[in-house]
Amino acid sequence: MNNVRLKGLGQMILWLFLTIIAVIVLNSYFGELSWSSKGWIISPPGAFALAGLVQFISGVPFNKLSSQWDSLKSWQRGLISTLILLLAIVVMLGVIALYLINTIE
Q1: The whole model's pTM is what?
Q2: pLDDT at 28
């Protein structure tokens, strides 16, 4: 594994751990807050964890990946963004379907 992937893995683990700690603390001290209120606190460490995941998967530093993304033509960015969105929707619907299948039994 190259150095960028290890750095990304470390970043992902660290920020994911901090996100879990934030969820535990928020649930124990402010148990009845809505998740929309908790999301403001949980989102930043979760975003850094996702940035680490991107570095881990791609093996490219995040700032270089960002400049490569910006160098794409607008139609290419639009197409890739649409495909990523569709993939995310399919994954979410698959998880919901598996949950519903398991709860019906």
Answers
A1: 0.70
A2: 81
Say which range, 15-19, 90-94, 101-105, has the weakest mean pLDDT.
Answer: 101-105
Residue whose tokens read 């470390």:
10
Q: Is 44 left (phi over 0), alpha (psi -120 to 50) or beta?
A: alpha
Spatial separation of the C-alpha atoms in residues 87 and 49, rounded to whole Å = 20
DSSP 31: T
Q: Are 45 and 19 in contact (CB under 8 A)?
A: yes
Would you list the domain boundaries of the chain? 1-62, 72-105
Distances (CA, A) of 27 to 17, 39, 66: 15, 12, 35
Amino acid at 55: Q
**C-alpha atoms less than 13 angstroms from C-alpha of 66 in its C-beta half-sphere:** 4
Q: What does the block give as tokens for 78?
A: 């639009």
Give the pLDDT score at 1: 63
53-75 tens-digit pLDDT: 999 998 999 889 889 999 999 99
